[in-house]
Automatic annotation (TrEMBL):
Gene3D superfamilies noted in UniProt: RutC-like (3.30.1330.40)
Native organism: Paracoccus contaminans
Domain of life: Bacteria
InterPro entries linked to this entry: Endoribo_LPSP/chorism_mut-like, RutC-like_sf, YjgF/YER057c/UK114
Name of the featured protein: Uncharacterized protein
Transmembrane segments: none
One family name in Pfam for this protein: Ribonuc_L-PSP
Amino acid sequence: MSIDARLSELNITLPAAPAPAANYVPAVQSGNLLFVSGQIPAGPEGLIRGRLGADMDVAAGAQAARACGLALLAQARAALGSLDRIARVVKLTGFVASTPDFTDQPEVVNGCSDLMVEVFGDRGRHARAAVSAPALPRGVAVEVEAVFEIA
């Protein structure tokens, strides 16, 4: 099954690939790897802002991470022409805006990780880091970057 068919089966619509907010490119292919720049979460009302442990709970943070994952897939499709070219999700790095005492960063970043497994199956299982940050760009709750292997 194609990835587009899988997305349709899951009732997932990818957003347009966001334009870079500064002096960088959204994705770089080097050999058979595609490095996608960190993506921040957006929803129908705009950017998903907040700080875990202060004004956002784990479930809302996981939804923000999922939105980052959708943006990562949109960037990958824009760079490659088709998500069918992805052989494997190699690594995700998730940054979570959180208070010093908040320790559930892994559960927040699961929002993105779970999406990758939903979409790609076993090819979506990946290495990962989930780290805390006192603040993220534009006040968003989460930022996630990805490395994909290209077939």
